[in-house]
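lol so apparently i was supposed to do this last week
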Amino acid sequence: MKLSQQTILITGATSGIGLHLASKLHQMGNQVIACGRNQLQLQKLSSAHPGMATHLCDVTDEQQRRELAAWAVAHYPALNMLINNAGIMQQLDLTGPIDPARMMTELTTNLLAPIHLSSLLVGHLQGQPVAALINITSGLAFTPLAIVPLYCATKAALHSFSLSQRHQLQDTSVRVFEIIPPAVGTNLGHQDNYDNSNDELMPMADFINAVIGALQQDTYEAGIGIAEQLRQQREGLFDLLNL
Ligand SMILES: NC(=O)c1ccc[n+]([C@@H]2O[C@H](COP(=O)([O-])OP(=O)(O)OC[C@H]3O[C@@H](n4cnc5c(N)ncnc54)[C@H](OP(=O)(O)O)[C@@H]3O)[C@@H](O)[C@H]2O)c1
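anyway here it is w/ NAP bound
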């Protein structure tokens, strides 16, 4: 799809992939609405990119999701793309009890929030001549990394959901994309001191260019870099990933 003069709402735009994608899409001549839960980071983003809109939203909060969707449609009626990018990755020890609140935060951030936000906006998007829902999953949706088990499960579920979403929307103007990133150096997992120094990291600029290319070429399920191998070989790579 054309990637200029679109109106694009992106969650989790205050760091990492979301920050770089928001910046790139802004540079390409789109109206970007950057969302996040860190007001200071949002202010920095809008100062660095005049014209970029920002909105505070903790995606784990249902009321904030409803408010974000209503505000975005009211202020940006041309809104035609949603990028469900916000995500967290937690290490969980499955040999003992897990705090339910901790589980619920990961489940809500990575799975329930994108599903709910999509549902809040899908009616509006169907009124646009061209529209897109873009879900950011992970190569780990296809080959789990056992130390972050619920993360992998939420991404596998979001992959499954994206298939159904795409099927149900096939006769509408809304295209459903799934972007499947490889390991990219960001803050993901840093709250648990996740050490990604052994990961083969894809440079952020290469990753962002690959995402833009996938969207422009209408690659609806886009495995980027090594994530494409995980997507194709799935559990066949489990032992290799979990040495
Ligand atoms: N980096 C990778 O290797 C990799 C690989 C595969 C998939 N992904 C996916 O890519 C997406 C972006 O992750 P990233 O790597 O860029 O990590 P990141 O640097 O940690 O960025 C995650 C973003 O999500 C936001 N976020 C988290 N919880 C939120 C909440 N409750 N409400 C609103 N925003 C929230 C964060 O905001 P705060 O700064 O406020 O926490 C941050 O802006 C995620 O869906 C992740 O699963 C990343």
